[in-house]
Amino acid sequence: MQHKNIREFERPVEEIEKKIEELRFSREMTPDTAREIRRLEEKRDRLIKDIYSSLTPWQITLVARHPARPYTLDYIGLVFDEFEELHGDRLYRDDPAIVGGLARIEGRKVVVIGHQKGRNTKERFYRNYGMPHPEGYRKAKRLMELAQRFSRPIITFIDTPGAAPDIEAEERGQAVAIAENLLYMAGLGVPVVSAVIGEGGSGGALAIGVANRVLMLEYSIYSVISPEGCAAILWKDGSKAELAAAQLRMGARELEKLGIVDRVVEEPPGGAHRNYELAAKSLKKALLESLEELSALTPDEIREARYRKFRRMGVSTEGD
Known about the structure:
By secondary structure, the chain is α/β, with parallel strands linked by helices. It has helices spanning 2-26, 31-52, 57-64, 72-79, 121-127, 134-149, 167-171, 174-186, 202-206, 227-234, 241-248, 252-258, 276-294, 299-312; strands spanning 82-85, 98-105, 108-115, 154-160, 192-201, 213-217, 221-223, 263-265. The protein has 2 domains: 2-54; 62-312, 2-enoyl-CoA Hydratase, Chain A, domain 1 (Alpha-Beta Complex), CATH 3.90.226.10. Strands 1, 2, 3, 4, 5, 6, 7 and 8 form an 8-stranded mixed β-sheet that branches.
């Protein structure tokens, strides 16, 4: 359903791309054919620019959920020089909805943690659609403890509709696992940089997002609840998700203005799903700059800066 909705506003682009493919493979490449392909490519690029310059909040939500959008493991492969994945929470089991381990970025040793979705039906089921169970958050906390012990900065990639809401998750202490992560991250003496790369849903996202710097890809979303969930609560009608998306103000640019996120990372024309390498290059640059900014701070300064950052959120003043 998501893919169908996405294709609605990108339909004109897809029609042009289909014509380009037909020209490339259906006939001999003559000078006239090459010129026609270039003309169509230019038309496609202009159309992408026009469409993506005026996306509605709901359309941005659909792009953030795009099934071809790069996930955590895609970025890990493109951003980091080395990565050694670690598994398990040392208590119950490994949770594939959270991936993490030791890595290097431009020679700098870091710990990486992120939500991971799946590409096909089998992978989505295996990863639980990127919705972690308590053992996933305990695994994340175990990796954070390693980072603290060995003084390694932490980088997290946020991309989840929310924490697993099933009975098994509740039986194994979902709320406690999330709360313990929030508390532990608040007291970390190492720099934490988080990047919202797709969906940032509720406590399931914040459980690895209590960071010194929060980055957000241009066409990602970050909110306390999904538009569908919000519509179901406010209007008892999940079909009003488009209206809810406009009211939630969960787009990157709006959240930057509100001080919820520190930096918006621009995506390639047409979104990160159209060019993984370019998206990863922009994200890597932002991550390195954030790490460099935080590298001069002492552990106490890191904790104090993180505390002040979150205390500033939601502050309001009343007029006389």
